[in-house]
Amino acid sequence: MGVTVNGVEHVRDVEPRLLLVHLLRDELRLTGTHWGCDTSNCGACIVWMDGLPVKSCTVLAVMADGRSVRTVEDLEGPFGLDQVQQSFMDCHGLQCGFCTPGMLMTARKLLDDNPDPTDTEIRQAISGQICRCTGYRNIVAAIRHAADAEAVGRGDT
Amino acid sequence: MTGTVEGCAGPGFGSVPRKEDGRFVRGRGRFVDDIALPGMLHGAVLRSPYAHARIRSVDATAAESHPKVRAVITGETLAARGMAWMPTFSHDVAAVLATDKVRYQGQEVAFVVADDRYAARDALALIDVDYEPLPPVADARRSLDEGAPVIRDDIADRTDNHVFDWETGDAGATEALFARAAHVSECDLVYPRVHPAPLETCGTVADFDRISGKLTVHTTAQAPHAHRMLYARIAGIPEHHIRIIAPDIGGGFGNKVGMYPGYLCAVVGSILTGAPVKWVEDRSENLMSTSFARDFHMHGEIAADADGHILALRVSVLADHGAFNATAQPSKFPAGFFGVFTGSYDIAAAHCRVTGVYTNKAPGGVAYACSFRVTEAVYLVERLVDVLARDTGRDPAELRMANLLTPDRFPFRSATGWEYDSGDYPRALRTALDMVGYEEVRAEQKQRRVAFERTGHGPLTGVGMSVFTEAVGAGPRRLMDIMGLGMADGAELRVHPTGPAVLRLSCMSQGQGHETTFAQIVSHELGLPVDAVEVVQGDTDNTPFGLGTYGSRSTPVSGAAASVAAGKVREQARQVAAVMLEVAADDLRWDVGTGGPEGGSFSVKGVPGVSVTLREIAMAAHGGLDLPDGVEGQLAASTVYNPPNLTFPFGAYVCVVDVDPGTGEVDVRRFVAVDDCGVRINPMIVEGQIHGGLADGIGMALMELVAFDDDGNHLSASFMDYLLPTAMECPPWELAATVTPSPHHPLGAKGVGESATVGSPPAVVNAVLDAIGVRHADMPLTPAHVWRALQGRPIRPDIAIR
């Protein structure tokens, strides 16, 4: 199979049953994507596939054949952190850091689609993910902070 | 002494961003499962499908012939090495791999080591175990019945499932007060079995070097030094040949305190194969077999006089400890710190009796941020006070206010012998009631109730509260130990010649920001920038010995150790400065400064402008100064902090819920939390920990439950069955702080990591029951449970619905 991950093409022989999360973590050594529950409930494994967030613990690696995958490692660009990364740091949107990559990937997608979400829309966007440390309040605040910062950057204020 | 002060003044302290975040937001954290060593193999555990069965035979020959399998470890393999059983933290033993019987569903039976994780799993299916099923004990209340199956027949002469009886308080004095009470309320309460469920499961990479004999274990260990001692005892490897490295830990909440069979099997796997062996459990394994929490069946009675003054409390508890007594708590406290069940109230007499029993369930018992069962104690007393209020027609806030301990009573010795260090409970409750707008919410509740009675439609509003007292930061050593190791913690601090410092700690973060908070403590003491202090933790070769944190011990114990070590370094610096300035050390005055890179400074009293900075002193200490005898040429100190007492953080929580009487669905509309954990080193981190604990409270009160059926089948073995709160169930928490310093902690700080988990469940339950007008129903108050309670037929939660 062939898959483009964070802009780099990889060709691999894989077992048909190999999960995408294990391809990323064990074969490509991109360990920012985490494995938390096996059942699509926790969202620690969220990556983008062709621009859409998917839970990579329930996607077979071969389903990514010919597709483009983006992981947390790709958020930081040549000019620094993505705004959602910066805002999670500024707003204490993480503690143990295990759910954080999945949260960041969802947050980035949300703000790409809806640059000015309400708090309820933010909560709905991350409702398929579990954080055991933050009680979500500072995650919501961080995503709100990122939206505001990007609005300022666009001159939308 | 109780002084209530505002703020968290001083250099170093304050809401500074966390040093650890940069790696986490980049996906560059290093968790156990991220580790890949050259030649590493993978382990998988075969688990029992039965809750109780005799093992007739284990045949691993087919698995051993799998082309990718390198080793299969069975109970027999371990028995030959004297490792089939391991000691627990609670005077018992637990099976590593079962040899005689399996005693709970999910118990470890065999371990496969293979080239990759998929092959290891494949090979499990090739192991043939011949089981003879036995009747299980799934209901703790039947465990002591005549003729109940004896679970622990491995113990000589054992004829029943009784583990211990423990009591505290004065039965006679309590009885006397009950006899003259104008009113007695009683209630049966189940605090059901729940699970800490950190998002990262437990795992290990064991690496045994056959040449040096050194074992390196990378593992999810909240208490690395305690683990090292356990490996030495169980595996017979000398302690200096064992190195435990706890990398980033993805949440612990007590789940990562214990020693699990998978860890030990990975060690044996590495010894047998000569290669590193990784074992990481999956979510089902985590939920089925690692340390659960609670499982207390309580009967409480509360006595009051005619004016509503609480006189006495009496409690009896049946504690379900599972198949092995493996609660990870101070060894002289079989029921943990449940003895603080008199809570925040001025109660003259109290008595409780706890009976522990074996059942065919996983062992554990103390986990999930419970402060050694203070969680159960707080739930009990806060629920009983609400029941008393209802039974006597009083407002629960007024009843609490009339019975709370007042600030002048501290230090306060409770009826069960605990000495609370400091507190101002009425102020916390008043603050919380003001924030929530208590009168307005009560008025709104009344309107909703009237509307419901008129139309039959909801929602119904409820208000619930709790005023909790926590007890955290175990020691002192003479009273509290884990397997003979006194509960103290160490710190080593060294200031480098050019000024920055390294602090080595015995405790290990599971996400609570030690790298930042402890750097702030050193900054506060020495005036160095927070960024100039490197914090080393989680590596037994590079940190001093200590018991570590289970949830709230870091600041009360290790934080104090860091402060004391920094104080020693400051006094060394004074001696060196005296030589530099050619004055007597007593003539020097310390000025902590503003946190610049020079650090604090010593100046000569009465001589303006003559001073040396810490940075200058550090260089001089290592330079050519002629130092007098007794003054070492370094700025470095170590300490072991043996806490004189626990710290007693407290708080007042008020929860407002809307309940749909048609479906039983609960919406937590508001949650106000006033916490007092003494001086706050980093208020941002403190608030974050409180947020997390409040979500735990929503989870336990409304959805989390480990349930079993009559056959002992575990019914909550995935996140589809074991429900955790998401962003949709959690309201935007409303927080406030009061600051009552601990008089015995060097920084005036108290622990806070578990406060909200301890304090929030009763507030949520009290709110839901207040909304639906039901005297008591057990957690979790799922829609089904609420609806049944509304019909007057509450469900017993811990066994499956038939």
From TrEMBL, chain B:
Its cofactor is Mo-molybdopterin cytosine dinucleotide. The keyword Membrane does not apply. Transmembrane segments: none annotated. Keywords: Molybdenum, Oxidoreductase. The keyword Metal-binding does not apply. InterPro entries: Ald_Oxase/Xan_DH_a/b, Ald_Oxase/Xan_DH_a/b_sf, Ald_Oxase/xanthine_DH-like, AldOxase/xan_DH_MoCoBD1, AldOxase/xan_DH_MoCoBD2, AldOxase/xan_DH_Mopterin-bd_sf, CO_Mo_DH_lsu. One of its GO terms (molecular function) is molybdenum ion binding. Residues 26-135 form the Aldehyde oxidase/xanthine dehydrogenase a/b hammerhead domain. This is Carbon-monoxide dehydrogenase large subunit.
